[in-house]
Amino acid sequence: MSAHAHQPEHSSSTSYEAEHEVEHDAEILVLTPRSAEPDGTEMDTDIADYWELWSEQIGRALVPVLDKLAASLPSFSSAMICTADGFNLCTLGVDEDQVTRLSAMTSSLHSIADVMSTSVHDGDDLLDIVSLTNGSSSTVLMAIRSLIIGQVLLWVTAEQVPLGALLMRGRVAARDVRTILADAR
Predict the structure, then answer these.
(1) How large is the average pLDDT for residues 42-52?
(2) Has this prediction a pTM greater than 0.85?
(3) Strand order in 129-134's β-sheet?
(4) Is 103 helix (H, G, I), strand (E, B) or coil?
(5) Sign of torsion over alpha carbons 161, 164, 167, 173
């Protein structure tokens, strides 16, 4: 299995550096706390301003989370962490030519399920988990909020695993994502 972390549109770092006159001296970018959003879904504005740079680094930082998740499930099929608006951060077990389409569909699926949930249930709580079962295959999709990048979506698919076990492994992975991307407001 190969993991795919987000890559910038520029295929080679040399051409990117030449085009953008990138210096190799390290610069520390201090992220200032922002006002609290009630639902924890908004991205920090400093990160949004430099999304191409940040998304590649965030994707690389999250690959070990998916590796650990895959190792914890003997019949692991695939997993993805993407932004709530459908941009891949990292994937495992997905053909590279399917990553963009699946991240967009993940966002759409979560949005549709969220609207359905809030229209049939009382309250304004946002949807946390969607589960899908197809024969012996199960998928759990989780929203992880209040991160420095706002909200991300994590999904994992495995064969012949009880839904409760898949949900538990997904929650452990979500905790690991929170640890890496905690919003220290």
Answers:
(1) 76
(2) no
(3) 3-5, 88-92, 76-83, 150-159, 137-147, 129-134
(4) helix
(5) negative
Residues 6+ apart with CB under 8 A from 160: 75, 136
Q: Are 3 and 95 in contact (CB under 8 A)?
A: no
* DSSP letters for 110-147: HHHHHHHHHHHSSS-PPP-EEEEEETTEEEEEEEEEEE
Arithmetic mean of pLDDT, 80-87 = 93
Token pair, residue 47, equals: 């990160």
Q: Within 10 Å of residue 118's Cβ, how many Cβ atoms?
A: 14
Q: Any idea what the Cα angle at residue 91 is, between residues 55 and 11, rounded to 5°?
A: 55
pLDDT (0 to 100) of residue 73: 96
pLDDT value at residue 1: 53
